[in-house]
Structure formats: C-alpha cells, structure tokens
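quick one before i forget lol
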Amino acid sequence: MVCLSIKKIKKRVNLQARYIKKEAVVKVFGRTTSFNVQKILWLLDELALNYEHIELGGHFGGLDSDEFFRLNPMKKVPVLIDGDKSIWESHTILRYLVAEYGDKIGILLAHMNALYTKDG
C-alpha cells in the first residue's frame, strides 16, 4: 500500500476537482460564522459546485426584508436557491444537495481509492 501525506492527497483531489464539470450555480444565503452555513459551504466545495454566497443575518441583517420572506417565510438562514427552488433548514439543504448532485462524490471517492492502491 502506498502511503501519501495528507498534503499530497489534498493536492491531488483538488487537481481532480478541476476536471469535474461544474454545471450548477446555486445561491446560499447566510453568514459565514454560522455553523449551519459552514456545513453547507463545505458540502458545496466537496461537490465542486459553483455557488454564490450572500452574507445575510446577524450583523449583516436582511432577514426582515420582503424579498427574503419570499425565500423563507421562517426568516432564518441558511437558505439555498437552486433554479426556482428555495430550500431552508441546514440538514434539509444537505440532503437535497446529496440527492441532487451526489454522483460527483463518487468521482472523488474513486479518485481517493486510486491514491491508495498499489501500482503493480
């Protein structure tokens, strides 16, 4: 079994992620300091999806606007917009992303397994 450093593994996975077709452009509303927003941003990065992050909530404000109320009547972050879909609650968003775009995880996992196989 080949033993690689974590740094080399991350570098190889990042290089592989460049070759994954980035189809979706989603929007995430919420402040970066929120753990619930952080886990969504982490998964979006793992899935190598294009996304736009809009800081909202906390000292950024914006949760009481009519526009945000139309996205989430609960007036809480995080909120994910994918096309015409508006999804809120962090675990619901995570489940949605895996169901909708989870096939990309398989590509990355296959690449990770290839890093640990013995070369002949």
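fyi Helices lie at 6-17, 35-46, 66-71, 90-101, 103-116.
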